[in-house]
Design a protein that fits this description.
The protein is of the alpha+beta class. The protein has helices at about 25-30, 30-60, 70, 80-90, 100-105, 110, 120-130, 185-190, 230-245, 245-250, 260-265; strands spanning about 5-10, 20, 150-155, 160, 165-170, 175, 250-255, 320-325, 340, 360, 370, 375. A 4-stranded antiparallel beta sheet has the order 3-6-12-7. A 4-stranded mixed beta sheet has the order 10-9-8-11. It has a two-stranded antiparallel sheet with strand order 1-2.
């Protein structure tokens, strides 16, 4: 006999721990098992350690002792956990029992709790996404590798912009993306050989970047893409319109105007101050008051969603709009005048994140504060 298989009762630790020897004939009659144990020994050990640490974590949480994140394994261990589960169980995190499953894959109620520190909520949400079979609709790409936009249909209305900028009517019917475009979705654009600023999607735009492509600066797949200029956002919309032409039925995808954005964000005729109904609530949006100091996954704050279901209209990142800031009714894509941005961002106080608040940015800026959302409508709208 070349080896013995020792098994324990799995519960008792220390010198009184019980060990038993499995039937030795297994190793003489089934060499494959010996090879399998040699190949999978690390995976078995990893899952055993995972079981012990998950139990300790659950006990500490029940006693309300210790910092939750420090007791969990580092997020960087997700790939080896997935590999071990695949090798040993043939499945994923769904094959785990409790408390192991909640230990490695936080639950929805864990990251949606508004009384948690915001950075902790971000970490918990991204840990859960590390083990998700697929991203929620509207955050990733589809089977063709194209951005899978979750469209929210908006009935039309009329908006009077602050500061005497004018009164405008939206299209009778249009749709906005449920979320800002994510890093994962924008990377599908950059992966296209024609996405270069020297290519067709930037034609007629006065962008100053030559053939230098945008380099999104926060590379978490489910957060809004940032580090993209207004020109980059326009090019993305043109590209997606062309790639989705077969299903758009003659409609186009473009940036929303300020009034289209505001009408939806304020709950249409409800004229909300923030995207949600009622007064300000801490934890409903990623703004300066939350002290996150960075962006967050686009679905982190469902409580802060707008009436029709759009998320992140308040905070996280400001969003490029189609029109100029000074002359709001100018929607032409040529020129280099400042463009409107809406919604506030993680570095701004809440007074700058009111749904009616107007602000601007230079169209060539590629900064970590500004992303964009897409609009689908008739080309004549």
């Amino acid at each position: 006999m070349n080896a013995r298989l020792l098994v324990s009762d799995g519960e008792q630790e220390g010198p009184d721990r019980t060990l038993e020897v499995a039937h030795e004939a297994l190793f003489t009659q089934w060499p494959r098992l010996q090879r399998w144990l040699h190949e999978r020994g690390y995976d078995l050990s990893l899952l055993r350690q995972l079981e012990r640490d998950a139990r300790r974590w659950a006990e500490a949480m029940a006693r309300r002792q210790g910092d939750e994140l420090s007791l969990r394994w580092h997020r960087g261990r997700a790939p080896e956990i997935r590999r071990a589960l695949s090798a040993i169980t043939g499945g994923g995190v769904e094959s785990l029992g409790e408390p192991m499953r909640s230990f490695v894959c936080p639950r929805r109620e864990d990251w949606e709790r508004v009384d948690r520190p915001f950075l902790e909520r971000i970490e918990l949400r991204e840990r859960a996404m590390d083990f998700a079979a697929r991203a929620p609709k509207g955050m990733d790409v589809d089977g063709d590798g194209l951005p899978d936009i979750a469209w929210v249909e908006i009935p039309g209305g009329e908006v009077t912009l602050e500061g005497g900028a004018g009164t405008f009517s939206t299209p009778a019917h249009y749709a906005l993306g449920r979320y800002p475009v994510t890093y994962a979705q924008f990377m599908a654009f950059l992966a296209d050989p024609e996405s270069s600023p020297a290519g067709p999607w930037y034609a007629g735009l006065d962008h100053p970047h030559g053939d230098e492509p945008p380099k999104p600066t926060i590379r978490e797949p489910w957060r809004p893409v940032v580090g993209v200029s207004w020109y980059d956002a326009v090019a993305f919309c043109r590209w997606l319109t062309a790639r989705r032409a077969a299903v758009l039925g003659g409609q186009e995808i473009r940036l929303p105007t300020e009034w289209e954005w505001e009408w939806a964000a304020r709950g249409r005729e409800e004229q909300r101050e923030f995207a949600w109904e009622g007064p300000w609530v801490d934890g409903y949006a990623n703004l300066l008051e939350q002290e996150a100091g960075t962006t967050s996954p686009v679905d982190l704050c469902p409580q802060g969603g707008a009436r029709d279901g759009m998320g992140d209209c308040t905070g996280n990142v400001e969003e490029w709009c189609l029109n100029e800031y000074e002359v709001a009714d100018n929607q032409a894509v040529d020129g280099a005048k400042e463009r409107s941005v809406r919604g506030g961002n993680w570095s701004l106080a809440r007074r700058y994140a009111r749904c009616a608040y107007r602000y601007w940015s230079h169209p060539y800026f590629r900064v970590i504060l500004v992303g964009f959302r897409v609009c689908r409508c008739s080309p004549s709208s």
